[in-house]
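Lab meeting minutes (informal)
Scribe: AK
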Amino acid sequence: MKTTSLAFIALFLLLSSSLFAQSGKVYDNLSLPSKILKSERKYAVYLPPDYETSDRSYPVLYLLHGSGDDQTGWVQFGEVLNITDKAIREGNATPMIIIMPDANTGRRGYFNDPKDDWNYEDFFFKELVPFVEKKYRIKSDKRFRAVAGLSMGGGGSFVYALHHPEMFSSACPLSAATGPLTVDDAKKQLIKSNPNVADSTVTAYYNRQSVVALVNNVPDDQKKAVRWYIDDGDDDFLYEGNCLVHIAMRKKDIPHEFRIRDGGHTWTYWRASLPEVLAFVSQGFHQY
C-alpha cells in the first residue's frame, strides 16, 4: 500500500511538472514575399503552449516594434516568450498567437510614404494579415484581432486602429509616437525630403498621420468601435503627444484606459507593460 501511494505521488509530480514545463514557441526569422514592397518581408511569431497539441484556432495580437529594432525586438529585448507563457499559465491572458512584423528593412516605419513609392501600411493589411491568418490557425473575426506596439510601433497601433476600426477589437499603444501635433509640424517633417511640398499634401498628410487629427475626426457611431489601452512613462520624451491624444479622446467621449507610470522610453518600462496589454486584449477576446 505504501509503495503504491509513493508511486502515485511520483506520477502526479511528474505529470504536474510536465504540465507546468509546457512552453510556447517563438520563430523570429520567418518571411513572406511582398509584391507591394517588392521584397521578402521578415516577421516573428509566438505560438501558445498548446498550439501543436490542439486543433483549435486562436485570437491574434499584432505586436509592433519600435524605431531601430526589427521583428526580433519583442523577442530578444521584450521577452515575449517568457512573459506571455507566464500570463497564460497564471490565467491572466488567454492563449493567443502573436505576430511581430519587421518595419525596419528597406525603409523604417509602418505607414505609406507620401510619395506613394513605399506603401507599408498597404502591405500590412493586404498581404501580411491575409498571409499569417491563412498560415496559422487564427480566428479571423475582428473580435479576435488586436494590435499593440511601442514607440514607432505605438504610433502604428494608433493609426492602424483609427484607419481600420473594423479590423481590431483592441489597440494598445505604448510610449507612442503620435505623429505631427500641428499642421506646421507636418510641414516641417515633409519639407525635409520635399522642399516644394504643396500645402494640400501637407494637410492630407496631417489628417492621415496625426493621431490627434484622426481622433478629432472619429465619427460618432465609431467612438466605441475599438477598446483602447494607452500607456506612457512620466519621463518619456513622447509624453506630450500621448497626453494630447488622451485629452482629445476625453473631449470626443471616446472610452479608453490611460496609464502614466514611473519610467522612461526603455525596455524595462515596456516589459512591465506587456502583461497588462495581454490581459487587456484577452478581455476583448472573451465572451461576456
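Next up, CB showed the second protein from the same session:
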Amino acid sequence: MNPREVAIEIAARYDTNNPFEIARERNIKVLYEPMKTTFGFYVRYRRIQHIILNNELSEGMQRFVCAHELGHSILHANLNVPKLTKYTMFSRDKFEMQANTFAVELLLPDGFLREYADCSIYQLAASVGVPKEFIELKRCANRV
C-alpha cells in the first residue's frame, strides 16, 4: 500500500483531513494518558481499536501523533507495531516511515498547499502540527 494514496483516499472518503474525526468515524477510541517518553501508540484488542496519546503533548503534536497512529491502524492493522516515543519518532523502520508519510499526507494535502501558496511549507506544516523534520516526506512523496 502506498501511504500517500491511502491518506488521499481516506481524506476523500471521510471528507476531512482531521485525524480525530476520521478515528471517530472508524470507531477508533482516542484516549489521553500521562506518559513520560511515549508520544502515543495504537492497539487493537478483541476487535476494539484504540489510539492512546500522551496528554502532555501540544495540540499540534497530538494531531500529528494521532494521524501517525491512524496510519498504523489502516496500513498495519494486523501488525504489532511499537509505541511512538521521542526516541523512535525518527526511526527509519519501514512501518514507522509509512505511518509518518501517511500522517504528513493526511495533514498537508496538495490542495491545502495550493490554496495557501503564498505561505511556506514550513508555515503550513506548523499550522497543522507536522514537525519540520517530516516536511521532506511530503517533498519525496510528490516526486513519485
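CB comment: Residues 3-143 form a domain with the Arc Repressor Mutant, subunit A fold (CATH 1.10.10.2910).
No objections, moving on.
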